[in-house]
Amino acid sequence: MAQSTTRAERRAGDSGATDFKTSMSTRYGLDRAFTVVVTAAALVGIVVLAVLLVDVVRDGSAMLSRNFLTSFPSQIFPENGGVYPALIGSVWLLGLTALISVPLGLGAAIYLEEYAEDTRINRIIEINISNLAGVPSIIYGLLGLGIFVQLLAPVTGGTSVLTGSLTLSLLILPVIIVATREALRAIPASIREGGFALGATRWEVIRSHLLPMALPGALTGIILALSRAIGEAAPLLVVGVALYQTYITRTPFEGYMALPTQIYDWISRPQVIFQESAAAGIVVIMVVLLLANSVAILLRNRFQRRV
C-alpha cells in the first residue's frame, strides 16, 4: 500500500514537473514576444522622429545663417528676414517662467507633502492639481487674458513678456508640483526620523536632507515642464504676443515676440520662402530647448553625485 502511494506521488510529481517546464517555456516565450513588441514600438517612434528632424533640417538649411539669427522678420523681403526679436523674446519667456514657476512649484510641493494635514480641503487641492496638469493650454491663455492682461494690467503692463511668463507659469506649475511630490515620497521615512531624533526641526530636515535628495527627480519634472512651455503658442496668442515688432524686448514690461508664434505666422503663409523660414525657426527653437535642457541635466547630475 505504501509502495503504491509512493509511486502515485512520483507520477504526480513528474506530471507537475512537466507542467512547470511547459509553463516556464510559455512565460519565457511571452516575455520574448513582449520585448519584441515594445522594441518595435520604440523604434517606430525613433524612426518617425528622425525622419521629421531630417526633413525639417533639410527644408530650413537654406535659411539657416548668422543673418537669420540677427535679423528682424520681413514680409516684403522674407529672404532677408530672421528670428532675432522672437529669439530674444523666447529667452525672456524661458527665464522668467523658470524664475516664477520653479520656486512656487517646489514650495507648494514641500508644503503639501511635508506640512499639510490629511484634511478634505487638502485632498481636494491635491486632486485639482493633478487634474490641472491635463487642462488644454488655451484655457490657461484665457485665464491669463482675464487676470494678467485685463485685471492686473497696471502691474503686469498688459500684453507684456511678464504676462506671457505668468501665463506659462500657471501652465507648468501642476507638472512641477506633481514631480516634486513624487520625488519627496520616494525618500525613506527613516531619513526624516533620523533627523528628528537628532533634534533637527522640520525645516532643517527638509533643507539639509529631503530637498537635496529630491532635487534630481524634481529637476526631471522641471525639464519636461519648461520644454512644454517654450513650445506653446496658443496661450501666448491669447494673451497678446506680437506677430511683428521693430524692436527687441529689453524689460519684462515691454511687448515681445516668441519663436512658436513666429513659426506659426510663417507656416500659415503659402509662399515657399516662408515655409523654409518656418523650418529654420523650428531648428532654432530645438537648439534653444536642447541648450536649456542640457543646463538642467547638468544640475540634476551634480545633485545626484552629491547625494
> Strand content of the residues, in percent?
under 5%
Taking the alpha carbons of the first and last residues, their distance comes to 67 Å
Note the total helix count.
12
Would you identify the CATH H-level superfamily of the largest domain? MetI-like
Q: According to CATH, what is the class of the largest domain? A: Mainly Alpha
Q: What overall geometry do the principal axes of the alpha carbons give?
A: globular
CATH architecture identity of the largest domain: Orthogonal Bundle
Order of helices and strands: HHHHHHHHHHHH
Structure characteristics:
307 residues; mainly alpha; MetI-like fold; 2 domains; 0% strand; disordered N terminus
Q: What do these coordinates show?
A:
The chain has 307 residues and is mainly α. It folds into 2 domains: 1-60; 66-306, MetI-like (MetI-like fold, Orthogonal Bundle). Helix content is 78%, strand content 0%. The chain is built from 12 helices and no strands. The protein has helices spanning 2-60, 66-70, 84-115, 120-132, 137-151, 153-156, 161-185, 189-197, 202-230, 234-238, 259-267, 272-306. Helix 3 packs across helix 11, helix 8 runs antiparallel to helix 9 (202-230) and helix 9 runs antiparallel to helix 12. The protein is globular, with a radius of gyration of 27 Å. 31% of the residues are buried. Residues 1-6 have low confidence and may be disordered.
